[in-house]
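User: Hey, quick favor. My workstation is busy. Could you predict this chain's structure for me?
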Amino acid sequence: MEPLASKIRPKSLADFVGQEHLVGQGKPLREAIEGKHLFSFLLWGPPGSGKTTLARIYANALNAEFHELSAVDSGKDDIKAVLGERRGRNVTLGFDKPKVLFIDEIHRFNKAQQDFLLPFVERGDLTLIGATTENPSFEVIPALLSRCRVFVLNELTAEDMEVILKATKIKMPKEAREWLVQMAQGDARQALTTLESAQKLYGKVTLESLKETIQSTHLRYDKKGEEHYNTISAFIKSMRASQPDASLYYLARMVEAGEDPLFIARRMVVFASEDIGLAQPTALVVANAVFRACEVIGYPECAINLAHGAAYLAESKKSRTSYNAYFETVDDVKKFGNLPIPMRVRNAPTKLMKELDCHKGYKLYDKESYLPDTLKGKKYLR
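Assistant: No problem, here it is.
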């Protein structure tokens, strides 16, 4: 039986919901579809935002042969099978219907597989549409990326999700629909799958049946993906801005998604010296204690230690003087190389070295600079 998500999938832009910045009047993807412009492109966006649907609408508008592969379980042989005997023939000259190859999760193709695609895209043997939830700048080889336009899809809004759910004609209480919209987090496919499962399992859709169908909200968070880096970035920036509420929120997102607590704690240790430094030296002590607690205790209890540390670091005064001073010295080390060290601060373990005046004149609390002569008078720590 055809899944609900497939059954109500829009066949044209007239029925497509969301992504107005791409398919609204005068917007680039609408212009491409209505003008029947043939070119390869990538659709980058979160799950359930309409990537596959837009690829099919585009192929239908061009009256093209549409072939769909998933990079998870496909390879070179599958691409060869799609090309058939048309390899090396330029279909843009009008000899045949264009072939559109849609590759879902194209970021999962390795470099060799992407290299294999390249000449066919260049010659026009096929028009490539790649869908990815990951940043194509990092996941798609430059040569292939340069031959494709990139369209960025946004997470569907609550209003978009409401429209999609109403299109199913499935009756449900307002509270159930609102819960489903919130639970799906802009993922239309997840909302529709949950809705269909609840109806099949319980015969009707209520708030209770939806909750029974999906026992816990799944947070979208790939530990090696874009959302991983976005969330840790937001966490660090919130602490840097002295916003404990935002810091704790992004911490909770990482914890609930199962992020490695030691990864979070390591970032906090770095932050304590990089952003707080001399303004509140005890921050490094606290951060190290949090790291140790995560090592010893682990989840779920160490989430409390992480929260304690995050709140403390966010509330602490901030100073990057030691951080900035260090990297200024690094610049001079690279610029000047190994400058001669002043004699009075050299080691003198032997009689000869003492005779050469090593260590001579050294004293505690000396006001004279111990920097190499070239850098005398230089102030790094300001």
